[in-house]
Amino acid sequence: MEIKKVVVPVAGWGTRSLPATKNVPKEMLPVYNKPVVQYVVEEAQGAGLTDVVFVTNRNKTIIEDHFDYNLALEDVLKRTNKMDTLKMVHDVAEMVNIISVRQKRQLGLGHAVLCAKAAVGNDPFALMVGDDLMFGMEPGIKQLMAVAHSEHMPVVGVVEVPSDKVSNYGIIRGDEFAPGMYRVRDLVEKPKVSEAPSRLAIVGRYILFPDIFEHLENLSPGHGGEIQLTDAMKELAKSNRLLAVKIRGQRFDTGDWSDYLTANIYFALQDETLRDDLVQRLKELLPYKG
Length: 290
Ligand code: UTP
What we know:
Blueprint: E1 5-9, E2 30-31, E3 34-35, H1 36-46, E4 51-56, H2 61-66, H3 71-79, H4 83-92, E5 97-102, H5 109-115, H6 117-120, E6 125-128, E7 132-135, H7 140-151, E8 155-160, E9 170-178, E10 181-189, E11 200-208, H8 211-218, H9 229-238, E12 243-246, E13 250-253, H10 257-268, H11 272-285
Parallel strand pairs: 1-4, 1-6, 4-5, 8-12
Antiparallel strand pairs: 2-3, 6-11, 7-13, 8-11, 9-10, 10-12
Helix pairs in contact: 3-4, 5-9
Bound molecules: uridine 5'-triphosphate.
Residues 9-17, 27, 55, 103, 106-109, 111-112, 129-131, 255 line the site of uridine 5'-triphosphate (UTP).
């Protein structure tokens, strides 16, 4: 079983990130020196995924353009002998093959995945949510691919969240069959703290099989006419066909301002030319009480 394709939905409105996202897709907001979605594609590439299916909309074509050549810009960089920058810009266009499909109405993450059905075909595929960043020793999605490969089953990525955050997430009820690996028995969407079956929250990394499309097609639209991926995952769990893997590493939901800003600092601190200056500036800001 070889997984080569990854679906990356990027068609949402990003209302939590307004007004920044009025005209700029939230997946194109920079985290330090790269747009959010470039980190996602780098993670996919690091896991050996070669074909990226963007689920996009009419206002998001700059996402595909980012992974294409910009020959006019490359000419300028050549002429001005900025060879390192030239390489950086050029290499982004060579990372992966891009396939683009349209989600014509924003009817939720489940609907976005369904829009990729024809592009995915009959093989298992990865799904990486375009605004969720994961960093660790090993690409997050690769940790799931290894388990899907050995167990021949769909796998969802989870992270442990503090109890006051469980009500923001889909939370799993599962049996741990190996360290950090669970057979999922049920999923509860945004539970109250008192009703949460665990603190294991579903994050934007999945390995799915084509049977997910049947489940999605059979769902009746939920709140706001949306088709929820979680509801289709529930069906998988009901038939004992879903595993969860606790992803090791840092995770940032860039649709959340606190996570977004922390991600910027996390990356900037890794740049030696910036670190000392940045630490100094942050120290100066910390006593600030507003
Ligand atoms: P979110 O729920 O975080 O995105 O979806 P959103 O709806 O854009 O943002 P808010 O909540 O209004 O701020 C996670 C990912 O799924 C995509 C989004 O682009 C994002 O990358 N998505 C969401 C779609 O592609 N289509 C949809 O209908 C909804």
